[in-house]
Amino acid sequence: MEDTIVAIATTVGFSALNVIRISGQNSIEIVNKICSKDLTKLKANTINYTFIIENDEKIDEVLVSIFKSPKSFTTEDVVEINTHGGTSTVNKIMQLLIKNGCRQAEPGEFIKRAFLNGRIDLIEAEAVSDLINSKTEEARKISMKGIEGKISNKIRTLREEILSLIANIEVNIDYPEYEDALVITNNLLKDKIENIKKQFENILENSKNNKIIINGISAGIIGSPNVGKSSLLNALLEEEKAIVTDIEGTTRDTVEGSIIISGIEVKLIDTAGIRKTKDKVEEIGVKKSYQILKNSDIILFVLDNNRKITKEEESLIKTLDKEKTIIIINKLDLKSNIDKNKLKDFTIVEISLKNENNLETLKNKIKELFNIEKIKNRDYTYLCNARQIGLIEKALIIIKEIEEELNLNVEIDLIEINIRRLWDILGEILGESYNDELLDEIFSKFCLGK
User: Fold this and answer.
1) Which stretches of the chain score pLDDT less than 70?
2) pLDDT tens digits, residue range 384-430?
3) Inter-residue contact 255 to 247 (CB < 8 Å)
4) Confidence at residue 177, expressed as pLDDT on a 0 to 100 scale
């Protein structure tokens, strides 16, 4: 991190302003080379009016903000140039900065430097990304808890509790004559591990809810051709997103859109009608439908009220997970020929897309299925992404191993090895232990200039 990096921190285009961000030990010196005002004599944490110049020609009238190490986002010297909007101007200034010693920053490199320089931990860094991508008020609230460090504090507290237990075990082993130390017996360790387990389980349960708020819910719209899948998508989106015709096989690829239900994003995926076909293109679409069926958080399985359930539909219904499926019986305005006995134990919503009847009922069933109202009114101070949750799940597997060792009366010094693994896992979540490949993967998902 010896070099000085630069990137555009705003979307380039027709806008009032653009922001160019520079960070590194030579940032003030480099920007000073292209400014009409001497930046080296200015105070830190100030905004300064000046011109960007090249060979005495004024390129743009700008405001330059100066932040000196260590009191900056990256803890390095940072300069931000507020330019006028427009592609030509911002590109010209970028060229001048690179010509005078800056390097184009990689995606997420500013926040990566903030992490590596110890200003933020990995939870806080990932929360910044979540905040940028948040689409709902609830997602914003969770992200801010991460940025404020409240989630990190919860993990650190648990990590300190585990470290205290490790330290006590070490004292028992190395200094058995030390009378003031708490003697860690098998039964005492069982109680402490049970308490730690409950904390991990609580974190996992609440974090999965946070993940739903941050990432939303994927809802696959599945069914035979011409049952109303595309019409359902259009009705829920309140726009003509998918083509609707009476011709079977009209939808050959997935069509997607999103709606917000009680503050949670629901990503709707309309799929090709599932049937046997000799059409090569349609066959590919059907295969995609099965993939969506497998991977969606919720299945909206659409049936035609006016016709009997086919053998193919019946076979498919038997494979559906009742806990995550809503059977939608469409065309309620027509005579019913459906045998509902074949749909026992499923959540059923009867609708008429022609008359737009019962769409709110369907939304309410989605809310009930995911307990959305309860999720919204809860403590947001938990983890929220797949990496973090995966590590908590790994920790619970280790705790199960510890419990088995305790039941077998394994020596406490051997059990300590697994307890230390729990401590290490919490360190991975915070980023106190990491590898370069992990960091590259995490920060590559950030936008340029962040």
Assistant:
1) 174-184, 241-253, 275-283, 373-379
2) 888 999 999 999 999 999 999 999 988 888 999 999 999 999 999 99
3) no
4) 53
Considering the domain 5-116, what is its CATH architecture? 2-Layer Sandwich (3.30)
Residue with tokens 């936008």: 447
Distance CA 236, CA 239 (A): 8
Instruction: Select from 434, 417, 437, 438 the least CA-distant residue to 426.
Output: 434
Q: In terms of Cα–Cα distance, which of 217, 171, 165, 210 is closest to 191?
A: 165
> CA-to-CA distance for 387 and 298, rounded, in angstroms?
22
Counted residue by residue, the chain has a size of 450
Q: What is the dihedral of CA 262, 265, 266, 268, to 10 degrees?
A: 140
The topology under which CATH files domain 217-296+298-369 is Rossmann fold (3.40.50)
Phi–psi pair at 152, nearest 5 degrees = -60, -40
Domain covering 150-213+381-431, topology: Four Helix Bundle (Hemerythrin (Met), subunit A) (1.20.120)
Q: How many CB atoms lie within 10 A of CB 273?
A: 23
Structure tokens at 201: 């389980």
Residue 292: exposure state from Cβ atoms within 10 A (0-12, 13-18, ≥19):
buried
Each domain of the chain, given as residue ranges in start order, spans 5-116, 150-213+381-431, 217-296+298-369
How far is residue 201 CA from its own chain's centroid?
A: 20
CB 270 within 8 A of CB 229: yes
Q: How many CA atoms lie within 13 A of 446 on its CB side?
A: 24
| Whole-number Å distance between alpha carbons of 427 and 171 | 23
Residue 356 φ/ψ region, left for φ over 0, alpha for ψ in the -120 to 50 degree band, beta for the rest: left
Q: List, as one string, the DSSP characters of 92-129.
A: HHHHHHHHTT-EEPPTTHHHHHHHHTTSS-HHHHHHHH
Q: pTM for this structure?
A: 0.75
Question: Does 217-296+298-369 match 150-213+381-431 at the fold level?
Answer: no
pLDDT value of position 129: 86
**Contact, 225 vs 273, CB < 8 A?**
yes
Tell me the two tokens of residue 236: 């829920």
- Check: CB of residue 6 under 8 Å from CB of residue 26: no
